[in-house]
Amino acid sequence: MKADTGRAGIVLAGGPSTRFEDGDKALAALAGRPLLLHAVEAVSPVVDDVVVSCRRDQRRSFESALEGVDVSFATDPIDGLGPVGGLRTALRETDRLTAVVIGCDSPLVPPAFLGHLLDRLEGSTTAGVLVRTDGRTRRLPTAVNTRAAAAAASEALDDGGTLHDVVERLAPVVIPEHHVAAAVDTERLVTVDTRADLARVEETLGRRIASGSPGGSPSGADGVRSNGR
Predict the structure, then answer these.
(1) Contact in structure between 98 and 145 (CB atoms under 8 Å)
(2) pTM higher than 0.85
């Protein structure tokens, strides 16, 4: 049993997959298992509860994909509110103090790095943590104070804001690019938007398995550098 650390994991999976041909990308297979399952397995080791945010029409197929896995589902009550609406619904679903948020399209993110984001949040006076890679501040993964983020999501919905706007309202700490690179192989933070992206991730995973690199299995080694904590 995990210690009661007051942490939730939120997996955003309600998107329409407009750039992903032939089906819902959350259910697309990587190494024989759905991307959604990889994302849930990435976050589960460092939190107490996992909440999957999805649309009503996705829930049955997601329940099948995650059969036997301990998760709850936050179903958007109103269609069309996008990831901000999905995040707000998921945040309202948990009574945990903090949450780490990832997308279902992040199959290789190391659990220990997500734990690192939560540690940074809980060790600061801010209500949010973001990371910077490749010259830009990423909207995901992020760690947030759940109550503050739920309020920020409501404000962002009223203003037509984006997911990035939600976290910006929390006056977040942004982990600099060189600190991120010291903590984790940034190749592990890749997101899958298209079938071509999925093929590249499959190739990366195969290369890691063949070479015996840390994190060769999405649910195996954590892929976090020892000097990054």
Answers:
(1) yes
(2) yes
